Amino acid sequence: MEIALYARVSTTRQQLDQTIEQQIERLREYVTEQPEWRLEEKHIYLDDGYSGAKLNRPGLARLRERVTKAEFEVILITAPDRLARNYVHQMLLIEEFQNLGCQVQFLERPMSQDPHDQLLLQIRGAVAEYERSLITERMRRGRRAKLRSGLILPWTVTPYGYLVDPEHPRDARKVSLDPVKSEIVRQMFAWYTDPQKRRSLYWIAKKLSDDGIPTPRGGIRWNASSILGILRSPAYAGMAYSDRTRSVPSVSRKSALQPIGPGKSRRLAPREDWIGIPVPAIVSQEIYDAAQQRLDENKQMSRRNNHKHNYLLRGLVSCGKCRLACSGRMVRPSYSYYTCWGSKDPLRKMHRPVYAIGSIRFSGLGRFV
Question: Which CATH class is domain 2-131?
């Protein structure tokens, strides 16, 4: 009889207390006591550092795929919570395996069709799910306590212009400024707050791209949204915040031809919920406030300009080549049309997988121009 082994640990602490190797050793010892069982090395499936609260695990995915090919008849696991922390997920996986002719066995409590065993499995699954929720809540409270005391940083990705200790990336006491990138951030704020030239976000993005300045992710083309994110971040004025935003359902998308994505967007949380952690400032509070004032003014002007004209297909027209949203324009009161800026602007065009070849225009009644 061909069998498979599955083992999982989710956190670093679990890896120290009960390693993958310890689980596999226990499973191997049990296999040797069953003379009719045969185990091949390719049928040992591991998920090291993956939470049992989710089904999206690479080892589990390979296991489920091999079960559909009937490559083994039994799956051996140390305990039900190693398969899944959620009772519903446990039942889903066990039923899936059984329907495909593969049985699941646990070392700590062999499972049968006896009603008492089934009840015990349900109780164990409910307890495992409760423990996971309890651990999550304790970790959340502990994290908030450390944030309020200023011991850890609120970010998981270091903002552009800052450096952290590689050994302790969340230690707020060891954050410093990148000598080159911090100067680029200062220049961004200086450009945007210059009252004489009043440069736009797009102008700054194009300037940085033309000068060959790598983006925060190492790309070659900046976009206006990246500049906006930097100018809006209060960390550059010396105060990083946790819980500054919250997740809300998305109500719009960038283009009618673009997927809505995960269906979530970020919105500012109430000011009293923010937790501030001091960090080295790159710009003064006065410059930061000036940038916020201008951003707010531009936002108000944008709303006002968008409602000057009534476009028939507002927000519904996209370019079939580059998938960018088309903008409405009016040459004269009797003639309005939609145009794709991606066909003319290489900076915008670089941020789409398919490049625009020509401009697509529509009249106000949907007629090609």
Answer: alpha beta
